[in-house]
Design a protein that fits this description.
The chain has 128 residues and is an alpha+beta fold. The chain is built from two helices and seven strands; from the N terminus they run αβββββββα. Helix content is 20%, strand content 45%.
Length: 128
């Protein structure tokens, strides 16, 4: 990736290429040379909703995600999963990376996440 705009283009191409996405709403996106952010809302084919957020920068030709949240919920608003790196759970072994599974109170360790990985994980669940 050469700059933040190229990364944003890459993320949107992943979303548009996903057969499980039926609608995308661009809530916010910014790309200023080496830094950027986005917030997208996706309606998925199983009627669930995925809200995606990343704040990132380019460092040495690669993307460094400083802050992220991928919030997946049912149509009735019930949380399925939320992957994020907020620093509010220092007790988790993978701090700050963690996942809320089924409720905000059920917090588990998680590897660092990105848009591509989350879209793949959700596609695997929707296929079932």
């Amino acid at each position: 990736m050469k700059d933040a705009a190229e990364y944003l283009h890459h993320v949107k191409a992943l979303i548009l290429g996903s057969p499980h996405v039926v609608r995308i709403e661009i809530v916010r996106e910014e790309a200023l040379d080496e830094m950027g952010l986005y917030r997208f809302r996706l309606n998925l084919m199983d009627d669930s909703l995925l809200e995606m957020f990343e704040r990132f920068s380019m460092q040495g030709g690669s993307i460094q995600v400083m802050k992220y949240s991928f919030h997946w919920q049912n149509t009735d608003g019930q949380l399925r999963k939320r992957w994020d790196n907020a620093t509010h759970h220092p007790e988790i072994s993978t701090h700050p990376h963690h996942i809320h599974k089924g409720s905000d109170k059920n917090v588990l360790p998680s590897e660092p996440m990105n848009a591509e990985r989350v879209l793949w994980l959700i596609a695997e669940k929707i296929k079932m």
